[in-house]
Every structure is written in structure tokens, then in C-alpha cells.
Description:
This protein has about 100 residues and is mainly beta. The chain is built from one helix and eight strands; from the N terminus they run ββββαββββ. It has a single domain (about 5-80), classed as Ubiquitin-like (UB roll), CATH 3.10.20. Helix content is about 5%, strand content about 35%.
Amino acid sequence: MPRRERGGIRSDQAVSVIELVINGKRVELDGPTPLLSYLEKHGVNPRTVAVEHNGEIIERSAFDTTTLREGDKVEIVRMVGGGLSSPFMGRWPAKPAGGADNC
Length: 103
């Protein structure tokens, strides 16, 4: 993706921007951006996400040294706790023999 410029507040000032893909969407940033800054700007707690950067899973300990740059492909996945506590793994048990329905 070629580096582009977009108009600034004043029309005689150009701001250099970079384009990258985050979670499948094209995103423009004002320049190379530290991953932690990007997450914080979007209200994301770095302890609750996993990040894939250009096909590699980033260890949380490396979030502070990872920089988003032109052409990067990033996937940010939020961890979700909870789930079903049932041993049926989300499926209703089969009806007992004889067809009786006790529900």
C-alpha cells in the first residue's frame, strides 16, 4: 500500500499517513504507531486480547516493542471468559428412552 497524504487542518499542510489492515478492515494511521498506543487509544486492555501481526502471534511481553507500519496485517482478538458450565457442551441431552420429556 503506497504511503498517502491527506489534508491537515490547514489546506497548505499535508499529513503523511500509512495504511494497514486491522481485523480485515483498511485503517489509516498518522504514521508508524506503537501497538500499545493503538490499543489504548481504542480503549482495549492489552491483557484481554491476543494479537497476530503479519502472520505471527505476538507475545504480550512484546506488545510494547511492536510498531504498526505501512502495509501490516493485524488481527486483534478479544478474550471472552465464561461459557457453559454444563457437561453437555451447549447441547441438550437426548430424550430418555421411551420418549418422556421431563423439561
